[in-house]
Amino acid sequence: MPEGYIHRIRVRYADTDKMGVVYHGRYFEWFEAARTEMIRDGGMAYSELEAQGISLPVMEARCRYRRSVSYDELVRIRTWMGSVDRAKLVLHYEVMGETDDAVRVEATTVHCFMDGRGRAIRAPKEVLAFFKRMVERM
Amino acid sequence: MPEGYIHRIRVRYADTDKMGVVYHGRYFEWFEAARTEMIRDGGMAYSELEAQGISLPVMEARCRYRRSVSYDELVRIRTWMGSVDRAKLVLHYEVMGETDDAVRVEATTVHCFMDGRGRAIRAPKEVLAFFKRMVERM
Amino acid sequence: MPEGYIHRIRVRYADTDKMGVVYHGRYFEWFEAARTEMIRDGGMAYSELEAQGISLPVMEARCRYRRSVSYDELVRIRTWMGSVDRAKLVLHYEVMGETDDAVRVEATTVHCFMDGRGRAIRAPKEVLAFFKRMVERM
Amino acid sequence: MPEGYIHRIRVRYADTDKMGVVYHGRYFEWFEAARTEMIRDGGMAYSELEAQGISLPVMEARCRYRRSVSYDELVRIRTWMGSVDRAKLVLHYEVMGETDDAVRVEATTVHCFMDGRGRAIRAPKEVLAFFKRMVERM
């Protein structure tokens, strides 16, 4: 299993619900932040990709909630690339506490490549090459 | 005090925080829904206004939290117009339970008129006339 | 395929992101509202279930995004029960426009039964009977 | 004007709306994160305060939106204490870009002290002393 990229998040009050733990829908915002920072760490800002007219909308999301995450916890999100080809990009995520490796939440998102007019496209060569380098690096 | 427009909202789990009540920042989403429905009820969809290149961004927001609102409560949001002129629009809100009139939360939002390029503008005549009719109607 | 329960939602500005469409993580709040109203329609408020010390946390969520949903659209969420036994409850969702039946988003959530101390439990008899009646009714 | 505490936030897609800028209600989550980190930096975790049965609910919030904040911007939130006495705590916030000092958004939140049963209380001596030291330090 690849080492992946670690992004840390501190749980806000706004993230919690009346159960006292992070609301299940909130994790998707965290995964968004995690993959954006992973891509930036790889040498490309997602906002630059968008400036070139290319976006990576989420086509599919899956999430398993194993153990809850509480208010004010500092968590690590490990993100890694599953696969990439000209049609889609698959990313995986694991949420863990700062000091223990028990996986609280695990997730997968599948993205396509989209042009500025909102149409699915084949990934341009240099974009595909960038993501392939990221897969190898991990 | 004008009667205003009543919009009802059922509190979701997602609206609550670990205190077990609605998160203070969430009310602004409710006020957005309330004013949008009030304007629609007055005869104009906010989305049509946008299609004409006019938007009403929030310039200022004020909110007082008097009593909390709990999960699964059905609340009434009373919305009314404070004033309108060519430069700005002032709206007021009160959140009450379904069966009691105690005000839980009260708020004010101040909006300017903006064109499609993001510049503050004077309200076009017909837009101003629409909002003036709404003030009178209340 | 069962007819299910229809819950309507109007898209708020707060639901959208800079792509101009509903943010992918937001749908989970809609599904929460939809299943809560479905259960209420079946004769039980989820808040009453909680008052009895039983909750239905999400253990797993899957979502496929087929077509985007835009600001101010009125959408229908069709919700139905896939299965229920003493260990878990499976629910399915489809998001459609008000006037067309094209499925924009489809999702599944899997829930366990939890007691007031946060431990997974077997569903109490009357709770299981309630959900079984709902499956048959659909 | 006191120097205050600087907390940095990177704008997520989830923070934006279809105008392409941060949704006005979202800033309250940022202010929550900013004041929590300011208090932690002062030597006390808000979660510890809660463990002692004391919370600081927002009684009032005011916000002025001067200039918008865009996706992927790194912003600085400057937070400082306005005043504190046994009945309430007043905090101020300013949102600025990473490289320029133009104030985009400015806000104030007013908090009371609450016990574990949800009743407003006078601030306990050591809690008041902590916040007084923070005012002086700034």
Question: Major sheet of chain A: size, sense and barrel closure?
Answer: 6 strands, antiparallel
Name the poorly predicted regions of chain A.
Answer: none
Mean pLDDT of chain A, to the nearest integer, reads: 95
Task: Please state the oligomeric state of the protein chains shown.
Answer: homotetramer
Gyration radius of chain A, rounded: 16 Å
- Percent strand of chain A: 35-45%
* Helix proportion range of chain A: 10-25%
**Helix and strand string of chain A, N-terminal first?**
EHHEEEEEH
Report the largest inter-chain contact.
A-C, 20 and 20 residues
The separation of the N and C termini of chain A measures 9 Å
Overview of the structural elements:
4 copies of one chain form a homotetramer. By secondary structure, chain A is an alpha+beta fold. Chain A has 3 helices and 6 strands. Chain A has helices spanning 27-41, 46-51, 125-137, and strands at residues 5-10, 58-65, 74-84, 88-97, 103-114, 120-121. In chain A, strands 1, 2, 3, 4, 5 and 6 form a 6-stranded antiparallel β-sheet that branches. The longest helix of chain A is centred in the N-terminal third of the chain and has 15 residues, at 27-41. The first copy, chain A, is globular and about 45 Å long. The termini of chain A are close together. The A-C interface holds A 19, 24-29, 32, 55, 57-65, 68, 118 and C 19, 24-29, 32, 55, 57-65, 68, 118. Strand 2 (58-65) of chain A pairs antiparallel with strand 2 (58-65) of chain C, so a sheet runs across the interface.
